[in-house]
């Protein structure tokens, strides 16, 4: 059990404000049972001891303030010791407010070194995650309001088995407003000079639907044919006689009537 100390009365004068060692404040309703417990009265013959029920009660305003600051319904219910249904009833409109702020932040423009980016935060983050081989559709967005009234936007995504988060500061304004990186993870996501090559696909994972045809073998060279023998010349044509003076028959040929060609 947690020890509480009395701080004072509430403004309505019907409840007592108590404070725990952690600094959390609680409200105790003053009723007949509390008054009887303070007096030490005993009631009823069948009741040997007064059953004092101490219930930690948070006002609706306190519940909504904690939810708006980023706490979950379960965290508020556990810290206050209040029923979960009661916290959910007052937390629902604030959760819608947080969801709307996160949606508006995705349409804001990241602030870079040379001014606001042309792309929105959602477009920038999507491009950055795709470049890392991650699924941009599996991201989660959340937002909560800080003590200074500004919104903190949280982006969550998975990389393998690890859960990652990045935080931005969202300032609503004209043309969707602006967002600035709040941590190193957010700075890397919106850095226009940050680039990581896409992961190479291993060759073993490739699925070829058609086998690659092997190159056709080169045709075998044709055997060299033996050279045909040149035809032999059986007889050479007689060389043409040189033109000159006709031969002069001998004297005995003239007497015998024989021509120089050997014909009579």
Automatic annotation (TrEMBL):
Pfam families in UniProt: DUF3071
DUF3071 domain ranges (all copies): 1-170
Chain intervals with Pro residues compositional bias: 214-224
Region: Disordered, residue numbers: 213-264
NCBIfam families per record: SepH
Protein name per Swiss-Prot or TrEMBL: Septation protein SepH
UniProt source species: Mycolicibacterium arseniciresistens
Species classification: Bacteria, Bacillati, Actinomycetota, Actinomycetes, Mycobacteriales
């Amino acid at each position: 059990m947690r020890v509480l100390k009395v701080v004072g009365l509430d403004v309505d004068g019907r409840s007592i404000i108590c404070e725990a060692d952690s600094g959390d404040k609680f409200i105790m309703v003053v009723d007949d049972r509390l008054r009887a417990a303070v007096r030490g009265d005993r009631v009823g013959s069948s009741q040997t001891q007064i059953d004092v029920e101490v219930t930690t009660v948070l006002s609706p305003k306190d519940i909504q303030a904690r939810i708006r600051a980023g706490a979950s319904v379960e965290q508020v219910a556990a810290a206050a010791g209040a029923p979960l249904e009661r916290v959910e009833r007052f937390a629902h409109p604030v959760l819608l407010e947080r969801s709307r702020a996160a949606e508006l932040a995705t349409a804001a423009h990241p602030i870079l070194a040379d001014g606001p980016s042309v792309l929105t935060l959602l477009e920038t983050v999507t491009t950055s995650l795709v470049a890392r081989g991650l699924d941009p559709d599996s991201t989660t967005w959340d937002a909560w309001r800080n003590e200074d009234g500004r919104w903190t936007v949280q982006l969550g995504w998975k990389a393998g088995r690890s859960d990652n988060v990045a935080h931005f500061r969202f300032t609503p304004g004209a043309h969707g407003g602006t967002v600035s990186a709040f941590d190193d993870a957010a700075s890397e996501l919106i850095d226009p000079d940050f680039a990581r090559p896409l992961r190479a696909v291993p060759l073993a994972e490739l699925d070829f639907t058609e086998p690659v045809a092997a190159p056709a073998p080169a045709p075998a060279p044709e055997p060299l044919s033996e050279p045909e023998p040149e035809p032999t010349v059986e007889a050479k044509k007689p060389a043409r006689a040189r033109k000159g003076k006709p031969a002069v028959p001998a004297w005995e040929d003239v007497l015998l009537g024989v021509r120089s060609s050997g014909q009579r």
